[in-house]
Amino acid sequence: MSSFEEAGTEETVTCLHMTFYHPCQEDKMMFRCLNFCKREQVRADETPKFGRDSNVCRYNLMDTRVSRIQFSLQFYRKLNSSEFCFEIKNLSKKTKLIVDQTELGYLNKTDLPWKCIICFGDYQILAEIEEGESVDYFETHLHLAEVPILQERCLPSLQPVPENGISSSLFPTQGKSPMEIDENES
After folding, report:
1. Which of 66, 108, 110, 132 is deepest in the core (most CB within 10 A)?
2. Closest C-alpha among 145, 152, 147, 151 to residue 34
3. Does the domain at residues 15-149 carry the CATH identifier 2.60.200.20?
4. Spans of biased composition, class Polar residues (predicted)?
């Protein structure tokens, strides 16, 4: 038997990709303490916090308008399941946290959807979960967005509805480009 055959099965790791945007990033550099484009391991029993207090928060946002501790993430496994999830909890007494369309007040928490937008103040964070199997740790992979995430993401409710009142999202175009039709044609 070769060493390849005897080697343990490689375990995949759950990774939380987070893309950050703030309109004043270029001027104020509020993300300067975040480690972008490099995966970082976090022990499964840790609850990483985001905020401006570097003594408490693992991920620091350099902005006086951000709470000392803005929010935390908890990695967990669903009961009677092999599925891993993240729970997000608002730890700011002053600022509401919006996760997609769900508004979280102080100490409110919710499961993080596999892809969602987290907003507070002028901050926008696109969070995407890449599934894995490891029970000992997960990874975070931070990215910086150049343009607003809310404009970049295509939301069905923001698509224009044609004059006939039938939404094009009900009839997928399968890659066809829109075609202009003269109103005298039938």
Report:
1. 66
2. 145
3. yes
4. 165-176
Q: What's the one-letter identity of residue 138?
A: F
Nearest-CA neighbor of 97 among 59, 77, 69? Answer: 69
Distance, CA of 20 to CA of 29 (rounded, Å) = 12
Q: What is the pLDDT along the chain (186 residues), one digit of tens a residue?
A: 555 455 556 789 999 999 999 999 999 999 999 999 899 999 999 999 999 999 999 999 999 999 999 999 999 998 988 889 999 999 999 999 999 999 999 999 999 999 999 999 999 999 999 999 999 999 999 999 999 998 754 444 444 445 555 544 444 444 445 555 555 555
Question: What six digits make up the tokens of 4?
Answer: 């390849």
Is 0.85 topped by the overall pTM? no
